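Researcher: Please generate the 3D structure of the following complex. Treat every line as part of one assembly.
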Amino acid sequence: MHHRSIQWLTALGLIAIPALALSQTPASAPATQAQIAALKDAVANAQSAGDNAWMLTSAALVLLMTGPGLALFYGGLVRKKNVLGTMMQSFAMMGLVSILWAIVGYSLAFGRGNLFIGGLGHVFLRGVGLSPASDPYAPTIPEQTYMIYQLMFAIITPALITGAFAERMKFSGMAVFLSLWSLCVYCPMAHMVWGLGGLLSAANGLVPSLDFAGGTVVHITSGVSALVAALYLGKRVGYPETAMPPHSMVLSFIGACLLWVGWFGFNAGSALAASSLATSAFVNTHFATAAAALGWTIFEWFHNGKPTALGAISGAVAGLVAITPASGFVEPFPALLIGLAAGFVCSFMVFKVKALFGYDDSLDAFGVHGAGGTLGAILTGVFATFAINPAYGAGVPTGGVDGHWMQVLHQLAGVGVAWGISIVGTLILLFVVDKTVGLRVTTDQEMAGLDLSQHGEEGYELGD
Amino acid sequence: MLKIEAVLQPSKLDAVKDALLEAGIEGMTILEARGHGRQKGHTEFYRGREYTVDLLPKVKIEMVVHDEMKEKVIQAIVGAARTGRIGDGKIFISHVDEAIRIRNDERGETAL
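Model: Done. Output below.
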């Protein structure tokens, strides 16, 4: 036995010694360099593959928020005769804004331009290819991934406005107004906050304002424009004397839950990589939403004596809105507080402020998105910390909790710009469309419902 | 021939239907309906707005029977649907001129 072991060791030695000698010859050194280079390539490819997989998934999730999410949420809240008309308003954005985005929208938002709007360098998607953009937006994913991801945001933003003028707007007027709005309000705002050289850009803007996933760009612009549109169009016939309860809370419930799920793509996708920052945004989004659902429910329980399903899901949406700008900047517990605050503030806006002023923001687009977006943008300035996202460089104080209270003022500037462009832009566009295409359906059409008067069909047929 | 119409609480439908079959009723038509009598409606809340809902969900049973079945039918419905509280419903009885069986044109009581 002992004798045989020695034989084996000798044999191994005879093989190993020449192998060691070979590896020490100078001829193998360039091979190792090449191996390191290949390894670097493989690592970069692996990261790109991982990031791209998450970003394509996120883009699909954000589209899911508009259709079916928002379409179901809004569709259930209107009366039976307007269910298709309301859903079509969201669906129309999926078509119209997509086409506009390819032609000129992406370029106006993310092309190289001035402080306020992008240039025409990317019209018809010129130069938008499958390698990462030359501009430093998302260095590990194809620019087309970035472009299509941003398109999904451009789709849902005007779709959110439709909640304010529900049940009374002409389909043609709506299509023209929101198409123009997408180019004249959304694209400039997206450029100012997220575009290269934009006025409010956190990276290099004159007034660096923090908006991780669109609190100002998406929610303040849509919510404030919604209020302007509700005031411009006036109330629905019979409002507020006639009860106009939701025709299907079940549809709205499914829609709101789809919004919650899709929002993970909206917020965590805004990390633009499958990174730990995406995890942070994901976690914050979830806790804020849960807390906001609770906040609204508590407010309503005290106010009316019953916790309604509509209250719980409305609170969840308010929380999703408020955490959007903060989702990639704050720790989980501040996120939870932001959500709770949104639940109380937005329910107060909808229950009390709307009743006080008497405007007919039919589905509370302003009360939820305008108010929640404004609250979230301001609180982002309070709770943003470099421990989560060193937006201004490693160790540089970011928000109030880091001692950089100036950031709250910068946030207010961002909020002010978003309110300003929304009010002015929406008023001008509504006026122009009103005088040309027309905005409001006739009283007879409104009584008959949008489904019949605008589309010639009905959501629910009697009989089989 | 008598037509008997009964408006009931939806929750009492199954009990009433069983009692009628037990009493020997051969056919009936059931309609989902909304309405109210002397009882008030209820209130609902949508985003803080309170609505009074006057028309409550009801079930209406219709049947046409031979004259002598009248009391048996009334007993069956009342026995199964009564809770003693407001909102239990009502029964209406009227005379029917003619009945026709569509399949073979039978007329009168034989068509029932």
